[in-house]
Structures are given as C-alpha cells and as structure tokens.
Amino acid sequence: MQTMYLFPQRERDYARTDQATETARRPDREEVKAMAVMHQDRTVPTGARTIYVLVCLAERAARWTRRRSLQRQARRCLARMSDRELGDIGLTRRDIQRLPDWF
Q: Where does the YjiS-like domain start and stop, copy by copy (predicted)?
C-alpha cells in the first residue's frame, strides 16, 4: 500500500501520492492508506445511450415512412385530376412524373 495525504482545506478534496522528496508527515494532513479506486465520471450509463440511439433511429424511420406515404398520396391525388384541373394549378401530366422525391 502507498501512503496518500488528503487536503480537505482545499476547494476540491483530492488525494495526492507521496513523492520521494516529500516523505515527512505534516500535521495539517491526514494520513490514509491508498486502495485501488475506479472513478466513473459518466453522467449517462452506456446502456442508456444505446437505447437512446435506437429510439432515435426508430423515430427517424417512422418519419421517413410517413413522409413517403404522404408523397405517394399527393401523387395519386394529382394523377386523378383532369388535364384542365392540372392546367389550372400550372402542372401537366409530365410534371407529376418528374416531381422530386422530397415533394
């Protein structure tokens, strides 16, 4: 085991290991025995992050599916219109076929 000194008078309590030049015991420090310590500073567990990513992907897939459904519905609606009705809104049958995917 290694000797460590705690510094409680500082803003953040932390431990510092003995160095070769500083072996004398000081009265303002409390001597403790060091042990193996593992710190986990993550605010979110890894499993929660994975679930969040999966939920985001599922939401994105649902939005894409809904958008494609609305696009097909709009194209079908335009295709059912007569040439005169399409002309009234400034479209032709050829324009319906050439509509971009984002429409």
A: 61-97
Q: Is the dihedral of CA 95, 96, 97, 99 positive or negative?
A: positive
Specify whether 20 is located in the same domain as 56.
no
Q: Are 79 and 96 in contact (CB under 8 A)?
A: yes
Per-residue pLDDT at 30 exceeds 70: no
Q: How many Å separate Cα 61 from the centre of its chain?
A: 17
DSSP-based three-state secondary structure for 52:
helix
pLDDT of amino acid 26:
54
Q: Is residue 26 part of a domain?
A: yes
Q: CA geometry: angle at 82 spanning 102 and 79, to 5°?
A: 30
pTM above 0.90, yes or no: no
Let me know whether 28 and 53 are in one domain. no
For residues 54 and 28, the answer to whether their CB atoms sit within 8 Å is no
